Structure formats: C-alpha cells, structure tokens
Amino acid sequence: MIKFPAKLSTEELAERLRVTPQTVNRWIKKLGWRTEPIPGVKGGRARVIFMTPDVVEYIANTPACLLYTSPSPRDMRRS
C-alpha cells in the first residue's frame, strides 16, 4: 500500500497514480471527497484533497491504480 501525506493537490495525486488530473477531478465530484482551496491561487480551481481512509481505499481498489500500488513480478523475484 502506498503511503500518502494528509493532503495532496489534484496534480500531485494524479502524478503519483499515473492518471490525468481530470480523472482525479472526476473522482472528487463523483465520490464527494473532501477538498479545500489552495491559499494564494487565483480562480479558486486549485484544490487539495484530504487523504481520508475512504479516499485511500478507493485508490487501492481502482484497477487503473493497482498497477502502481502492487509489486511487479520482477520486484517479487528480487526479494
């Protein structure tokens, strides 16, 4: 399981999961994740996501993200 800080921006989460920021924004709207505006950013569109247990669980169970949260067969051979 990937360890996450308490808050991440949409862009930071997208980069870590190797998905687009639009995908993360879709999840935020669809699932009602808790967010807050980033101070000092004009327009109010830049937000940080609170990495609550339900957010982490959703990410862990999303097939697109499993590739990046599970060890690869090559990694398993090295141990």
Brief write-up:
It contains five helices and three strands; from the N terminus they run E-H-H-E-E-H-H-H.
Describe this structure in words.
- The protein is 51% helix and 13% strand.
- α1 crosses α2 (21-31).
- It is α+β, with helices and mostly antiparallel strands and 79 residues long.
- The chain has helices at residues 10-17, 21-31, 53-60, 63-69, 73-78; strands at 7-9, 35-37, 47-50.
- The two termini are 17 Å apart.
- The longest helix has 11 residues, at 21-31.
Fold topology:
Layout: E1 7-9, H1 10-17, H2 21-31, E2 35-37, E3 47-50, H3 53-60, H4 63-69, H5 73-78
Antiparallel strand pairs: 1-3, 2-3
Helix pairs in contact: 1-2
